[in-house]
Amino acid sequence: MEASSGYKDYVAGLMAGVATVITGHPFDTVKVKLQKYNTEAGAVKYKNGLHCATRILQTEGVKGLYRGATSSFIGMAFESSLSFGIYSQTKRFLQGEIDGGKPQPHAIVPSAAFGGSIISFILCPSELVKCRMQVQGTDFMVPKSTRFSGPLECALKTVQEEGLTGMFRGGLATLLRESVGNAVFFSTYEYTRYFMHLQLKGASSESSQLIDVGVGIMSGGLGGIAFWSAVLPLDVAKTIIQTTPEKNHSRNPFSVLNLEIWT
């Protein structure tokens, strides 16, 4: 029973990761381009996300919005699977088999942070490749410093030029983003789900499955909003660190953010 439940946690996380890439990667591409080119001194300034997305569609078509999706599929599938699996297993270990009870912060926060810190080591290399692919493009507004034909070439050139440690550039920012972000996400998710179920406690059994789906969507959506509200600055720093061509560029996310504020 316990093993079966753990298996389902990992499979559910895997499916969630795949669905996230399919629906969210175009938005992520726009986000990364804005983080890269709207923070550099003298760089092109996209007016907003719509302007950036329009430029991509005009010069590269829909496939431009999915640039870097291969590495994102690999990273997000494993990341989401391990995140949900490790979190669920660790939470059970800390609080026991309590089902439907009031959320316990002493179990949720460390479980989520632990899961986030573990997956950051897997996520960092895949996100580095993803981001470096995403900042490319055929748009004349984008600098033509380096072009990669695919994620494999990007990874190989990174290792050749920067060594194996180059694949973990931005590791500290990724670790902080995932550990803090997951703690915020799962705390919001658990409390939202708990209080929504309390309000809908008297619902008929026929509609219980539909209610569970709705509660899951609302809880996950609010958790995602809370996640990015808490860690977006760290994500901006991570993108800058991972995509800069300068080998001696600071890898301290707080130094990078401080520099961006004062320049």
TrEMBL record:
Solcar repeats lie at residues 4-93, 103-195. It is found in: Mitochondrion membrane. Its main location: mitochondrion. It is a multi-pass membrane protein. Keywords: Membrane, Mitochondrion, Repeat, Transmembrane, Transmembrane helix, Transport. It comes from the Eukaryota. InterPro entries: MCP_dom_sf, MCP_transmembrane, Mitochondrial_Carrier. Belongs to the mitochondrial carrier (TC 2.A.29) family. This is Mitochondrial arginine transporter BAC1 isoform X3. The gene is LOC107008717.
